[in-house]
Predict the structure.
Amino acid sequence: MSAQQTPKSISSISFGLMDPEEYRDMSATKVITADTYDDDGFPIDMGLMDPRLGVIDPGLECKTCGKHSGSCNGHFGHIELAAPVIHVGFNKLIRRLLRGTCRECSRLCLDEREREEFEDRLERSEELGKDVNDVTKAAIRQARKKDRCPFCGEPQYDIKHEKPTTYYEVQDVLSSEYSQRIVAAMEPDEEAGRERTTPSELADETGIDPSRVQEIISGEFRPRQDDRRAIESALDVDLTEEDENKLMPSDIRDWFEDIPDEDVEVLGMKPARSRPEWMILTVLPVPPVTARPSITLDNGQRSEDDLTHKLVDIIRINQRFMENREAGAPQLIIEDLWELLQYHVTTFMDNEISGTPPARHRSGRPLKTLSQRLKGKEGRFRGSLSGKRVNFSARTVISPDPTLSLNEVGVPDRVAKEMTQTMNVNERNLDNARRYVANGPEAHPGANYVKRPDGRRLKVTEKNCEELAEKVEPGWEVSRHMIDGDIIIFNRQPSLHRMSIMAHEVVVMPYKTFRLNTTVCPPYNADFDGDEMNMHALQNEEARAEARVLMRVQEQILSPRFGENIIGAIQDHISGTYLLTHTNPEFNETQALDLLRATRIDELPPESGVDDDGTPYWTGRDIFSELLPDDLDLTFTSEAGDDVIIEEGQLVEGTIDDSAVGGFGGEIVDIITKEYSNTRARIFVNEIAALAMRSIMHFGFSIGIDDESVPEAAEAQITEAIDNAYDRVEELIETYERGELESLPGRTVDETLEMKIMQTLGKARDSAGDIAGDHFDDDNPAVVMAESGARGSMLNLTQMAGCVGQQAVRGERINRGYEDRTLSHFKQNDLSSDAHGFVEASYRSGLNPKEFFFHAMGGREGLVDTAVRTSKSGYLQRRLINALSELEAQYDGTVRDTSDNIVQFEFGEDGTSPVQVSSNEETPVDVEEIADSVLDAEFESESIKSEFLGERTEPTNLSEHTDDWWMAEGDD
Amino acid sequence: MVDVSQHELVPDHSIVDEDVLDDVLEEYNIKKTDLPKIKRTDPATPDEAEVGDVIKIVRNSRTTDQAVVYRLVVS
């Protein structure tokens, strides 16, 4: 395979540590000079910009591979470090190894039995796909418990880790004041009942020569270890103090080199791939210049990448280290330089380590080093690999257009002229292709580019378009503008479910916004208060076919979330069908035709009846029935509360409202989608929307402040009802103050009082609403909307006309503010309703200042709640999606993750898709499917079956335009 | 002590025989370790089940009457 080609498949990946020898082998050059370019602007040999590390300047040739910039990926170099340093990324693992292995013989401090146990557990963990780290951690913990190495008997010391890269051995050494401690312990102590110990007694007891004891006591001789122990036990004193012995990286490297391969394996590492000593760097790879390109500023000055700056620092210190060591500098200086080298190598890899000051640029900005390039939202993984900016996409504001089909989207012409589709020119589309090219890039159905069979791309311009059009031949490719009927993908963020991305057919339109049919607002959760949406033009036939068959809006009418339709009539559509069918009004011929004129119905059915003066009329229900399939039978209860009966495609009785044609489970839409087809459902929804718009315009529909006013008599009734409630609350408060209020089970008296007051006031608001409701006509627009389920509720109406009611914060009456009162307008400890946020007024009458304030308190809580809820649930959703994203339904019906672990033996335990199963509670099984399978078994072949059952032509799944033909063929 | 296996909401858990198990593993073309897991200490695992055994769980289902699931007992 040539280096140009990308590998087609990756059979395996293995991660491990890198052998320093490997660094040297792959290195194109050793880097020894800290400078980049010489005075003439040429890269210095064996410097950081050595031409062997790759090329970034166009026109130059790579000295290693001979390729030019763009095709040469660059080559690594290396720096020989003067002294080993620790790789920060492994500081935890290094600590673990230091703690688990013997300081003398480097073997893992576990006996045979323990080793076997951990080996077993490791194997089992790997098999079960559990975290191997848990086992290795446990192994280290076990090994750390040992005081002495089980193999060589060497005592083990605790390892102290000072983040990020310093390690100490904590040892017990002889205290500097040992003689004083011995003398003090030899003195008599009355409290402890101890007698004086003479030096000779001590000598006898410990078996040390008496003269030596004298020397020890006078501090002239430091006792050896066993002597010290003997004295300690004889006198019952502690002569030691803790001392920290710093482990230099070279010590650690020597230590790790001796760890046997078998022990490394118990710790979950593969010694063939990663020896522990490789975690201590002796060679530092220098990234190719292509990974740290230098840029030339406007003034001709070169500006280097952060990584290059860091490498310069490393080389400088490295050099200084070597010079000092050769000159025989004192140990202290060497150690300082060593630490400095460690710091630079550490920050080269990660510049955001806690405890270390970040390395800074001259301007004071922290440098962006290796791990900063990878980490975080804008890092390589999340920013450049999983998500990147895409071509052939457009974004603009959306606005409604009821004349579009729900499958379509209006695309501004200036977008259509930019997003191109590739035409492969052949004999049959040659004329079209030439026409597009002849139109040039400015006129609408034009073309922007052509590609000759030899692969050369030519830009179509106003000047050359005529000329170029004649040259186009079969075999050319033309990038033509988007035209009506093209398929595109449309999306609105946040993309929370699969209906957030759907395919639409293009309708090219003037002006600057994307146009949508309003029935697709619920799946996108879109409105037109400034929402923007994204469009993606598809670039190959497979994508276009797949989008058309699987992703088109009509294929998404049923939601997999609840198995019912998510697309259907909304808001004014529902008010419209309600007005049309609720009172079943009569229309003359002109009116009836006008209502149906935006649908495919162009002939009226037989009249519903004849007027007194002989003119025929059509009822609203009969007009609605024209849109139903001819053989539909259905009964259900409507939102308005009456029974809807549909027989043979005729609406016999009932009101068509939200529960019939609405989104989120409108019965008729649901049934048509499931029993007929998605195409039929799309036609139905489109026509319902068109009919509803016509009918709402016929009747006229508006709402104003007077629509919520009630007669004075009713107003008086409402005031009375509220006054009564006030009296009852007063009574409650009096009983409470007398101490006669009986508490409800499980509550205190105060809680009981609060509850009862809330109850009373709640009832008061409801009765105010009832009184107001009684005085509204059935044709009141607010009532129509609430009854039909189009928008709003009776509660909203109550608040507008009757009384807003009790305001609450945290589910209680308002209790906050000043000491013992809510506002300074009230007496302290006032329990009355108006002092705790009961709003007596209605929105129409207007709130007084105190009421307004309480209302604002309740309103604020609602706003805060929504804000908190969206962010919380968004994060929860992100985590769930990340956790479940690798699960996949397999062809054998099981659901498995990427490592073939079974998660479900049958998708959803029943292997059915929620959109294919009936949504009926009582019969959750798809009876039709079962009937089909019984029929299949009954008949010998397809032809006999179709002869017996008759045929129903199914629509093709191609385009809006072909479906019209199918509808014309059909009989309904 | 309450025996949860007798509770109406706890489906039937039974140990799968060695030869039946082979058929199951072959049907799904998997190793034993690819099965979902259940803890030995889980109150619903039968008392006689040991680590490495496979448990068959038969649940009642609204849509398919019975849904069968296998789980590997782990420590």
